[in-house]
Write a structure and sequence with these properties.
With 161 residues, the chain is mostly helical. It is built from 2 helices and 2 strands; from the N terminus they run E-E-H-H. The longest helix is centred in the C-terminal third of the chain and has 37 residues. The chain is elongated and about 85 Å long.
């Protein structure tokens, strides 16, 4: 699925920074690009079209399907389709869709940063809460002991004055 099409650039886009490269048809009466003189970029023509079989497909050769929820994965085939998760799907639902897609061997076109967002498991949450309470309890005991030491030392200073 390699493309032999030239990059169709807008006339004078290489000359002026304010003119974007997005294709626009050259309409000038004396335009060299409209007249297709040699040395100027190619114009868009019917002959540059893609094959009907591959038109509109993802570069991997699969048809894209937009997925809004986990149940949408049941109606599509991983050999034919590639999954693109809808942009409005939240992170929690996105993670479950990605997990189900991996189970069914789908390729996800926009998975996001999976390394920084691991799938949360129910068994991990209670363990984290216990560890946090133990560390905070240890800190509070140390603070109480430090306060007692300060109280003991402060009356001695008052007596000496």
């Amino acid at each position: 699925m390699t493309s032999s099409k030239p990059d169709f650039k807008r006339q004078e886009s290489w000359r002026y920074k304010r003119v974007a490269e997005n294709w626009r048809r050259p309409r000038g009466v004396t335009s060299k690009m409209r007249k297709e003189e040699s040395g100027f970029p190619s114009k868009v023509k019917v002959g540059y079209g893609t094959d009907a079989q591959t038109r509109g497909l993802h570069p991997r050769g699969l048809a894209e399907r937009l997925v809004y929820r986990v149940t949408d994965l049941e109606s599509i085939d991983p050999a034919i389709h590639i999954v693109r998760i809808f942009h409005g799907v939240g992170e929690r639902k996105r993670l479950t869709i990605i997990a189900k897609a991996k189970e069914r061997n789908f390729h996800v076109a926009n998975p996001g940063k999976e390394e920084s967002r691991p799938v949360p498991e129910a068994s991990e949450k209670p363990g984290l809460a216990i560890d946090a309470t133990e560390s905070s309890a240890g800190d509070s005991e140390g603070e109480v002991e430090a306060a007692k030491v300060n109280e003991e030392s402060s009356p001695e200073k008052e007596d000496s004055e």
